[in-house]
């Protein structure tokens, strides 16, 4: 390593040190929600007697904070606690989707697909393909971190290129492009599950489509790929070749992540059958009498059965190829093997279930107290007084989300905390929940790759050390900063361009509140 990358007194490393120290002092997200519940209770008791002039949009009357520390409120809270948790929308969404994804992942179907895509890619398309595969890997949640990122290094190294450039490209796709995907995934309904109750703080009849950002995130996958391609080939790899040469004793002859003939047969059998089933499903949507349409014949309305079946469809279209691949490739010998990989995927969700318990209680308390509505109205009035333009306001939300991301790594945990504030506040200014959610996704993704507090960040450092043993946190961040800056700026411009041109963000989506 050069003195530039190893200098502990550099601005980057000093900044990282501050971020790491502040972040390490923050409680776990689950505990943050627990603390927030107590804060809401105390504030509700202190502010219940205050008379506010702001009008509650739900009933047209002056807003009043409800005291949650009264005997009646506390007994109601206890009696509803189980129902509050079990009816928490994101919980069911994630668990059901992950059952299907877990089978596709545990059977080896997703791994084989990624290996085949990367191995068959022509040399000149190596960089964009690694990035794009990283983006698509979000469908399997963690598969990108544990498979695509190390494979990026392996494939670049085998092709005679700098392996850290391959790792950086893959990391940019997997983590920097976390909110970009050409396919619907569990991330979409997960975020919608927080956006909708946040919007209902202002309008209790508000509904948000699970794919309300789909067109934007699908188009964003192209943008992220192009940005990552240019930065990797023109900026990062030349700098790595000059300043971070591969160690002479680095691991040699890396495994290209090969697959057996049986795995290949399993992959193609599963893919073909799934494609045929998908075509049949699409054909079943076409007739005007299709049971997937609503009473008026629409496929995209909130009440259309197909829209209400998004999560089950994600489950089925991951489960089907997973089971077929597992059986043909010999991974599944009996039905118990399928249940075992489902169980394993649920074990991986244990922490999320714990966090969801406290998160659901916080959202309930925040909404019931009317503190969320009060904060939204006062915040909206403050922004109105500033008289900022729409793009500046949205850019502010993006940059704020990007900053918070440096300290709280979980996308769902951050949105659970921010949605009840941002969504109703911007609704008061006339901006739709769909636009606010899209802005959050841009900010959240852009700084994923430069925060050491992201759970997989140390793992990526370890991957790099296989080739350049002196790689540290500062080295990796210095490599990823160009991606982060470019994504933050260009992706923000991309969202504003979508807005200005009136390109739909997704299904049943609007830019203006009241435009549904």
Strand-helix topology:
Blueprint lengths: L2 H4 L4 H15 L3 H19 L23 H16 L2 H18 L2 H11 L6 H11 L6 H16 L4 H14 L10 H13 L14 H30 L17 H25 L19 H4 L1 H19 L6 H13 L2 H19 L2 H16 L3 H15 L6 H18 L4 H14 L10 H9 L7 H29 L15
Helix pairs in contact: 3-16, 4-16, 5-10, 5-14, 5-15, 6-8, 6-12, 7-8, 7-9, 7-11, 8-9, 8-21, 9-11, 10-19, 11-22, 12-14, 16-19, 17-19, 18-20, 19-20, 20-22
The radius of gyration is 24 Å
**Major sheet description:** none
Oligomer: single chain
Overall geometry comes to globular
Distance between the termini: 56 Å
Structural class: mainly alpha
What is the mean pLDDT? 83
List the defining traits of the structure above.
single chain; 516 residues; mainly alpha; 22 helices; globular
Structure, described:
This protein has helices at 3-6, 11-25, 29-47, 71-86, 89-106, 109-119, 126-136, 143-158, 163-176, 187-199, 214-243, 261-285, 305-308, 310-328, 335-347, 350-368, 371-386, 390-404, 411-428, 433-446, 457-465, 473-501. The protein is an all-alpha fold. The chain is globular and about 70 Å long. The N and C termini lie far apart (56 Å). 49% of the residues are buried. Residues 1-9 have low confidence and may be disordered.
In short:
The protein is mainly α and 516 residues long.
């Amino acid at each position: 390593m050069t003195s530039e990358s190893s200098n502990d007194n550099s601005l980057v490393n000093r900044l990282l040190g501050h971020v790491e120290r502040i972040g390490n002092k923050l409680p776990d997200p689950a505990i943050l929600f627990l603390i927030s519940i107590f804060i809401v209770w105390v504030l509700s008791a202190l502010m219940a007697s205050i008379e506010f002039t702001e009008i509650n949009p739900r009933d047209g009357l002056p807003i009043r904070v409800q005291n949650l520390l009264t005997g009646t409120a506390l007994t109601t809270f206890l009696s509803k606690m189980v129902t509050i948790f079990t009816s928490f929308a994101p919980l069911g969404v994630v668990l059901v989707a992950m059952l299907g994804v877990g089978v596709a992942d545990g059977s080896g179907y997703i791994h084989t697909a990624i290996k085949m895509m990367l191995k068959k890619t022509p040399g000149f398309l190596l960089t964009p393909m690694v990035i794009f595969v990283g983006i698509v890997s979000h469908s399997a949640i963690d598969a990108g971190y544990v498979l695509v990122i190390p494979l990026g290094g392996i494939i670049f190294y085998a092709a005679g290129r700098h392996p850290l450039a391959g790792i950086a490209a893959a990391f940019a796709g997997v983590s920097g492009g976390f909110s970009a995907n050409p396919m619907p995934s569990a991330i979409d309904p997960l975020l919608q599950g927080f956006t909708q109750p946040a919007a209902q703080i202002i309008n209790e009849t508000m509904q948000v489509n699970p794919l309300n950002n789909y067109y934007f995130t699908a188009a964003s996958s192209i943008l992220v790929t192009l940005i990552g391609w240019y930065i990797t080939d023109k900026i990062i790899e030349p700098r790595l070749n000059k300043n971070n040469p591969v160690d002479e004793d680095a691991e040699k002859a890396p495994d290209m992540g090969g697959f057996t003939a049986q795995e290949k047969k399993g992959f193609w059998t599963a893919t073909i059958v799934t494609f045929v089933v998908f075509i049949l499903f699409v054909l079943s949507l076409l007739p005007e009498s299709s049971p997937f349409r609503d009473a008026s014949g629409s496929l995209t309305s909130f009440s259309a059965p197909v829209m209400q079946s998004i999560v089950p469809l994600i489950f089925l279209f991951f489960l089907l190829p997973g089971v077929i691949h597992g059986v043909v490739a010999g991974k599944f010998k009996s039905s118990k093997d399928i249940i075992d990989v489902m169980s394993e995927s649920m074990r991986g969700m244990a922490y999320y279930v714990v966090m969801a318990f406290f998160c659901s209680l916080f959202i309930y308390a925040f909404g019931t107290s009317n503190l969320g509505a009060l904060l939204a109205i006062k915040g909206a009035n403050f922004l109105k007084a500033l008289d900022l333009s729409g793009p500046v306001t949205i850019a502010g939300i993006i940059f704020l989300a990007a900053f918070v991301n440096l300290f709280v790594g979980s996308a769902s945990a951050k949105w659970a905390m921010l949605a009840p504030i941002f969504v109703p506040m911007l609704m008061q200014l006339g901006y739709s929940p769909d636009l606010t959610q899209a802005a959050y996704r841009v900010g959240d993704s852009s700084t994923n790759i430069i925060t050491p507090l992201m759970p997989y960040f140390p793992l990526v450092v370890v991957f790099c050390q296989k080739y350049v043993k002196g790689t540290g946190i500062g080295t990796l961040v210095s490599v990823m900063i160009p991606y982060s800056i470019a994504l933050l700026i260009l992706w923000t411009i991309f969202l504003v361009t979508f807005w200005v041109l009136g390109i739909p963000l997704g299904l049943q989506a609007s830019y203006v509140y009241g435009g549904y």
